[in-house]
Amino acid sequence: MAQAFREFLRQQEEKGDILRIRPQVDTISEMGAVIARADYDHVDKGLLFENPKGFDIPVFANTIGGSGYRRIADTFGVPLKHAVPGAAQKMRQALAGNVPPVYVDRGAAPCKELVFTGADIDLTRLPILRLNPADGSDTKEFLDGRFVCGVACTKPAENAYNLSYHRFEITGRNKGSVWIFRGTGDAKSMEEFWGAKIDDRSSTWNHDKARAFPMAFVIGVGPDMVLAAANAALPHKNNDFAYVGALTGEPVKLVKCETIDVDVPADAEIVIEGVFKPFDWVMQGRFASFNGFYDDARRRPAFHVTAITMRRQPIYQHVHIGRPLNECNNIAAFFRSVRVYVDLAQVLPNVVDVFVDPAAGCGFTVHVAIDKRRIGEPRMAMMRAYTALQGFCKHVFVYDKDIDIHNPHERDWALAHRFMADRDLLVIPNVIGMTIDPLAQADMGATAKLGVYDGHDAIVRNTRTFMGVDCTAPLGLKMMERVIPDPAIEASVDRIWHQIAQGGAL
Ligand SMILES: Cc1cc2nc3c(=O)[nH]c(=O)nc-3n(C[C@H](O)[C@H](O)[C@H](O)COP(=O)(O)O)c2cc1C
To answer: Does residue 217 register a pLDDT over 80?
Structure first.
């Protein structure tokens, strides 16, 4: 299961899971749209752009992809049908397991084949793309709206490593700005280094004590690390590499950065090292968030690049964000599904599966399947799912265990045949909301600013209306027998379809 990026690509190619895109594609005007189209049309493959216009570095997008859990299940080594409960179990074991990383010399680290520091640093030589048409707009300092979307690595303490994602707009050869969301592990670490809240605008900062906070963007890592970086359940000051090692059964190989006190996976393709100098902000251009809205241009911490290291012929790996479906919300929704599943299982051990819909704000709409035994369990599931996501969740649909909640046709069938609005609908107004919900109500009944997080405490007072929909069959009511496929017949159908797909005679 442990896969360095190159080995992952090789295996994917063997499985026919990579779509090679040979025509020249422009990284600003076209590439983001090609990835978005692939996700929207459910092209569940990695995309290898062999000829980004003006660059000799290929771009690989969709390591996990924007549509579905197939490659997530493969990475965790669990069956697709069991992806959420299976991953929950693997994560619990890996967190207890802990396989520490090992350190290699820079001579044994492919990511050090080329090293650029000082005046040689040039981000514009990398095929960094503009993801969405209006990305980067509304600022003066602007370089076509190019954003690095890849794994960020920090070292919050000795033997502690944090993997995460932070959008990084590049505004010059060696600089840019990075969005670090409040409450994330890196925001906490940065506050420790700076000795101040990252969004503190007062002038009481202690400039003498504040230290620069280092971060490395690690581009070109295997799917284990792509997933670990999105996993907010890993504790702050945890060793995320030891967690990945325990998941894969092999220690991650790390090498020291050139200019900062951070260690990075030695077999990465490209590493961008840099620091956040204390209290140094810059305007970041607009950028599409995971829920399909553009965020406003905002003041974000400035990022100063101190080194770029890479393989001699690297591949630039990109994780996509934009109009749902996209890789970002697919991954984020998966981990939210795991979070709800684990939380629900504490009060309802008969929970069977959870599906947080990535297209619906990756948390706004949650589908839950239970093996219902008592009247009232669906409502318990609704309320617990709401609290598990701490205000993210807005709509919960609960189904019986025979419904495949990942399949929209099955969900629609259950809604049509097992739900009665006067009896099965739960509506709770004025629950805690989210500013990224464009319909959330701010104080005094005014509508919150459309889809924009403004970074002020007042926003936590926004409210919204919660809806629970019970699509389970009433207990004790004799229902008509449902038509379901016969497993023995299905085995023959599999064979027939396989032969049809091969174009062979039956
Ligand atoms: C593709 C992707 C992009 C993300 N972009 C950002 C971002 O720009 N800024 C941010 O703070 N969080 C972003 N997130 C969310 C964090 O990566 C996520 O909350 C992370 O797991 C936090 O974990 P941590 O608290 O352990 O660092 C993104 C997540 C994904 C999956």
So the answer is: yes
Domain, as residue range, for 352: 348-479
Please provide the DSSP assignment of 12-59 as one string.
HHHTT-EEEE-S-B-TTTTHHHHHHHHHHTT--SEEEES-BTT-SS-E
Q: How far is CA 303 from the centre of its chain?
A: 22
Mean pLDDT across the stretch 357-374? Answer: 95
pTM reported for the whole predicted model = 0.94
Choose the residue to mutate in 91, 166, 300 for probing ligand 1, maximizing ligand atoms within 8 Å of C-beta: 166
Q: Is the CB of 328 under 6 A from ligand 1?
A: yes
446 has pLDDT over 70: no
Does some domain include residue 497? no
Residue 61 and residue 116 in one domain: yes
How many domains does the chain fold into? 2
Q: Give distance in angstroms: CA of 227 to centre of ligand 1.
A: 11
Residues 55 and 177 in one domain: yes
User: pLDDT tens digits, residue range 168-178?
Assistant: 999 999 999 99
CB-ligand 1 contact for 287 (6 Å cutoff): no
Residue-averaged pLDDT of the chain: 92
* Residue 61 CB–ligand 1 contact under 6 Å: no
Cβ 239 under 6 angstroms from ligand 1: no
